[in-house]
Amino acid sequence: MIIKHVFFDLDHTLWDFETNSAKTFEKIFKKNNINIKVDVFLNYYRAINLTYWRLYRSDNISKEKLRYGRLKDTFDRLSYEITDNMIHTLSDEYIQVLPSFNHVFDGTFDILEYLKPKYQLHIITNGFSEVQQEKLSGSKIAKYFDKVITSESVDVKKPNPKIFQHALDISGANKTQSIMIGDSWEADFIGAKNFGMKAIFCNFDNEPVDESIMSVSNLLELKKYL
Asked: In degrees rounded to 5, what are phi and psi of residue 92?
């Protein structure tokens, strides 16, 4: 059946999370006199953050523990002395400042302009509700999307099938007419496939994948599938 609805992940797929996150840390570290180089901090933080997000996706930790723990563990790994109060301050400021930086991946506007006349476009994101809409608006891509589904609004996270079903329900779509596009192998690709939707893996790190899998190394390659 012909595809009518295209569901995108946001962070790491369209919105350049790593660039925007680095700039956010630069700003809040300077403001709070955190005497550590951001690139050194990020060398540890990125992997720790991914671990916490996996725990969060599987409902093993709360949003609050994720936001605190990823910072606490990184500072501990660096043996950097910092108070709990300052960690909480940095955690809060990080969420506040993050949407003020709005770099998107190369090809984002071109591919959305290409897809918008042909499909209904939507977002399914595990990101925090209080900042996702700001990211869409600030990066000037909100206008391309009809529905924005956040995990917090559904109270389940990708890859839980309930969030995909909710996305179909509110967009008036069905599985056979829908496709999911995202960078997370587990949350986006496997989550959608297990639910019964088609999926395209945004393989921006050029990981080895089977030729039978629909994957792209940049956004403009989506044109070969859509």
From this structure: -70, -45
Give the number of other Cβ atoms within 10 Å of residue 37's Cβ: 11
Query: Quick one: 24 and 9 in the same domain?
Result: no
Question: Angle 208-56-84 (CA atoms, 0-180°, nearest 5)?
Answer: 120
Identify the pLDDT of residue 30: 97
Rounded to 10 deg, the angle between the 63-77 and 84-97 helix axes is 120
Other beta carbons less than 10 A from residue 39's beta carbon = 10
- Mean pLDDT, residues 120-126 taken together: 97
35-48 pLDDT, tens per residue? Answer: 999 999 999 999 99
- What pLDDT is recorded for position 127? 85
pLDDT at 130 over 90: no
Omega before 159 within 30 of 0, i.e. cis: yes
For residue 108, give its domain range.
Answer: 5-16+104-224
